[in-house]
## 1
Amino acid sequence: MKFSILSRGDEKSNKIRTQIKDYLVEFKLDYDEVEPDLVISVGGDGTLLEAFHTYVERLDKTAFIGVHTGHLGFYADWMPEELEKLIIEIARNPYRVVEYPLLEVTITPNSGAEEDRYLALNECTIKTSEGSVVLDIEIKGDHFETFRGDGLCVSTPSGSTAYNKALGGAILHPSLEAIQVTEMASINNRVFRTIGSPLILPSHHTCLFKPLNDRSFLFTIDHITRTYKDVKSIQCRVAEEKVRFARFRPFPFWKRVHDSFVSDEHSK
Ligand code: NAD
């Protein structure tokens, strides 16, 4: 098996990276940063997001696992104290793969230039630094509403515990092939009206956002930010691709949610 390791870059994460690498090479596993079967991220959730985007072109051939060296890791669920156990598991035992849905975002410019396609593990947000975001929202080809406000967040089920949660969105189990649209401070009065509730769309429902003013937009795709001018439309839907996580022990989603947000006293 070929593996690679991505570190957050701090001293502790780099040290753990070297330890894991040396042990796994001793166990006759191949270190390969170009075509790894297993990618180990050492750091936090941000490091796992970085690892995901590094290998986004070969998701069907790559499984991810996260070791956390900071606090609260939602994707990074192995602790440094468990390193020896994890190394032996990787070296000796075949792992189970769990697959989670992803978000596909397609940004089409007005100019007729080629569209850009992104995959997000957590979410895409649409914001502007030039006043309000004003756009028409179409769902499955039909006009749904005109949105005015600070912006919108479209999240995956595994990303529903991230930015989406802070916006009052629901937490979705990743076995649901769905995306969730949440509002950021929508303007609601006698003139302007939006639904005000998060919307959960199944995989066969595409959401299209059509800007109604010529603002430049700030898009985030997970931890990555991009600025676009002259946007014709932004299409969001459940992607055909999935992310694959290597599981060496059961760690149910609701337990992870409980341990991250309620209390981790029972997990020790
Ligand atoms: P960061 O360093 O600001 O970390 C954001 C926090 O989000 C960290 O505590 C991280 O552990 C947590 N997180 C990331 N993914 C998560 C998930 N799926 N479930 C639960 N918690 C999760 O930023 P970063 O490390 O570059 O990560 C980018 C992510 O930060 C974005 O994808 C977005 O979801 C999140 N974010 C959250 C808010 C908010 O909650 N108000 C605002 C901006 C960005």
Note: The chain has two domains: 2-95+248-267, 102-241.
## 2
Amino acid sequence: MRIDARIARLQLAEPFVIARETTTEAEVVWVEIEHEGERGFGEAAPSEHYGESVESAVAYVEEVTGWIGDDPFALDDVLDPLPKREYAARAAIDGALHDLCGKLTGLPVWRLLGLRQGGPPTSWTIGLSDPDEMARKAAQASGFRGLKLKLGGQDGLDVDRVSAVRRVWAGPIRVDVNEYWEISEALEAIPQFAELGVEYVEQPLPAGHPDGAALKKQSPLPVYVDEDCHTLRDVAACVERAHGINIKLAKSGGIREAVRMAHAARALGLGVMLGCMVESGLGIAAGASIASLCDHVDLDGNLLIREDPWPGVQLTCGVQVPSSSPGLGVREEVPSPR
Ligand code: MG
């Protein structure tokens, strides 16, 4: 098999704000694996937060070029020996192999895995801003059946943000604090969120925070962890501090590990959420292929960008439905010259 990687830039439709950063453009890496005249593609969306970049992802792909062998169906033999770092790059390699296997067999990836085509409706994410602005964006959210509000403003206004949105949005609301609360703030806010009908709270405390177990015991709402849970190895330890985990392919290293994590979480009585980074339809298609394993889905990365260069996933009644075409079912759209 031949493997290549290239860097691509995705322009966001509007700046995306969370507690630790503002993003106007996302850089991703597209990996291509060619075998017997067929080509499979996968996307890496590296996160600075985890010490990864597009440059380090490309370097990883170049480093492992000689390791990938000649059998795209031998997923464990190809993926297991690769160094356990650069998880976004690993996810791109895993995605490209799944795309390739699907194309070689004529099956969409979700079917190759024996899964259902669609999962739960995706959340539409509203970035961190002042309460009125977040409510304005919530009122405009059409085509979605649930909202995820980014919180952690460190200005005492997080409850006001949720109240303002609740006034204009009757459907499900989830919130993501991105590690920006202390336990005192969490214990004050979460009961008020329960009154406002919030479904669950994502990563209220910093990853590994010693108050995690105490918060789980006292929280009237389910706590989901994201920054606390990367790969299968992390799942068991999350039982102490969370009611559920947020799986992202860019953290897990791809579909194969994500499926293991979902089953491990179930065995431990944890809820399963599927998230994403800002990524194109190529990365979202890989996530959408396993969405049916999850209780909650947040796969709106390709909807946050101005133009999706890899169309194929269809937002249908609020669900990100993967294509019925072979592989990941997306095709690169080369922009026409203007
Ligand atoms: Mg999160």
Note: The longest strand covers residues 2-18.
